[in-house]
Amino acid sequence: FGKEIAHPNPATEPPLPTSEAAQNHTPNPYRNSNITHEKIAAIRAKATNPTPPKIDHCQPSDTYPESFPHFVRGRDSLREYITSLFTSRIAMYDGAMGTMIQNYAKKNKLEEEEYRGERFKDWKCNTKGNNDQLSITQPHIIKGIYKEYLEVGGSDLIGTNTFSSTTIAMGDYEMEDYVYELNYEGARLAREACDEVTAKDPTKPRFVVGAIGPTNRTGSISPSVEDPSARNVTFDELVDAYFEQVVGLMDGGADILMVETIFDTLNAKAALYAIGEYLEFSGLDIPVFVSGTLVDQSGRTLSGQTGEAFYASIRHAKPMCVGLNCALGAKHMTPFVEKLSKCVECFLHVYSNAGLPNAMGGYDESPDDMAQANKVFFENGWLNMVGGCCGSTPPHIKAIREMSESYKPRKLPDVGRPKMWLSGLEDLKVEDVHNHLGLPFLNVGERCNISGSLRFKKLMMSGDYGTAMDIAKKQVEDGAHVIDINVDDGMLDGLAAMQKFVKIAVTEPEVSKVPFMLDASKFEIVLAGLKWCQGKCIVNSISLKVGEELFKEQATLLKKHGCAVVVMAFDEEGQAATEEEKVRICKRSYDILVNEVKFPPEDIIFDPNVLTIGTGMEEHANYGVDFINATKTIKEICPYVKISGGISNLSFGFRGVMKIRESIHSVFLQHAILESGM
């Protein structure tokens, strides 16, 4: 399969989103008043800002000279600028906002009265501790902190004071209605500070990073010890909350969006979905950064993923920069940063804490200590951007910047053959997988499939999810690389059963360490299950049987969720039986998916239908050979796709005679795998 051999080529930029604006490096015009999508307009219509907000932030094209390192909003592509910046030197992010607010409070009065300000003096509950609120009530404090990071620390990019500015997190202060204003003001103050500092030295433009925190709820973790399927937030609720935050940040003047401090990747996937919706509605190209949090020396997020699995789960969003922040000091992050540096295809960042917290919850690393702790990252060429998190201050950022200046930034990895990269709690590159015989073959465990296991069916019908989990665990122990989940039955509420099974399964490390294949005859059932998976799943299946328009609609949704997909060899006229039909339908499906939907070809799995032989009917005699021959042709004319098939169908005419069935399967797989590339 010569077309699939791709010799590594040097990367000139991080992987691009598939939108026309991103592909063409179209500059953001910064004219948000031209963005009038009804969902965006509805959020602006309920804004609480006392005066109409200024939402356009374009600059005259002749504000600064036209070549790098200068930058003018509306004239220049920020994507191109960041690529130039991150490949020429290690860029500087800022440090902790909370630490600086605490330091301010040690020298100045900052109690309940100051948090409320005049605007919220009669508020219904206490608001002290709601740091994001200070962007409205004490803007001079927040802008002053921004400017310290820019002027003292020398930050190229600063994060907005909006870590908790979602309707979900603001519920603690009953301030859900003020979310747009909180994000707008947090970004506006940062925009002002950046522009003022840039004006003093236009050769060092400063940029606003819209900070999107994790919220105080998790989609993957049950809040109940008794009920592992319980959740206090849904994927759709997270998407709605994040979308409102994104609108406020962009209207306030943010240049970049950063999903940060991710301890549950499902929350991050919801945030990235919301950002994707905003970019689709606006037609803009906005660079997206993503920052995960590994909570301890196990090197895993709170929801159990390794750093590599976290990246595999979010890489479909094509972030421009990915990295780690919070929870650990730089010293403790070292092995995990090294692992990410070996697999991340885009730029890489770190903004660690100033060591681990002491007994009083404070951080003891001095600026020099923290700079020394970060030195290993620079020496090894692992980073493109660096900053600080809890305990860091402008002097910390200054010391890190000075330490970094004599080192080169991380080189983007070469671009090679694209691979299907799945994840559960751990990552899995399908092309690198071999089965227990050493063959390049991925085994899908199908015992959690109602049509494949009578025992599983009985357990699901009786609602015994605990014992059903034991079946899933056993499959992983026996070597299944992926677990298929199918709850299709006319007597079962498939929508509810799929969601409950997945929600429980993701809390079982022995099960969820492998990726899931969500399998249903109804698209809404797999979509519902997908919204509870933090990893990168396979969806089984879609086909042209539903017609071309609905096929494209379903594929587009799956692409937004970042999953791989099984595509059945069906079209509007029915199932492909002959070699010619299998090839024709798969090629047509491939062209639609790759050329129109922009679906990654490596994430497509064709099932050209393994049909039964030995039935006594002459027209069935060649079904096995047809599949093998079609597989080879499909692999040749549809680069990077995978082939799967339900092998037991082949010998169904000999059911009950296991020796014959196993012999047929062995001969069939020998030809299909080793000769035809199944």
Write the layout of secondary structure elements.
Blueprint: H1 20-23, H2 38-45, H3 78-88, E1 91-92, H4 97-107, H5 112-116, H6 134-137, H7 139-153, E2 157-159, H8 179-200, E3 207-212, H9 235-252, E4 256-262, H10 265-282, E5 288-292, H11 307-314, E6 321-329, H12 330-343, E7 347-353, H13 367-379, E8 385-388, H14 394-404, E9 421-423, E10 427-429, E11 444-445, H15 454-462, H16 465-477, E12 482-486, H17 494-505, H18 509-512, E13 516-519, H19 523-530, E14 538-542, H20 548-561, E15 564-568, E16 570-571, E17 574-575, H21 579-597, E18 604-607, H22 623-637, E19 642-643, H23 658-674
Parallel strand pairs: 1-8, 2-3, 3-4, 4-5, 5-6, 6-7, 7-8, 11-12, 12-13, 13-14, 14-15, 15-18, 18-19
Antiparallel strand pairs: 9-10, 16-17
Report on this model:
The chain has 678 residues and is α/β, with parallel strands linked by helices. It is 40% helix and 12% strand. It is built from 23 helices and 19 strands. The protein has an eight-stranded parallel β-sheet with strand order 1-8-7-6-5-4-3-2. A seven-stranded parallel β-sheet has the order 11-12-13-14-15-18-19, with helices on one face. Strands 9-10 form a two-stranded antiparallel sheet. Strand 7 (347-353), helix 13 and strand 8 form a beta-alpha-beta unit. Helix 7 (139-153) packs parallel to helix 8, helix 13 (367-379) runs parallel beside helix 14 (394-404) and helix 20 (548-561) packs across helix 21. The termini are close together. 51% of the residues are buried.
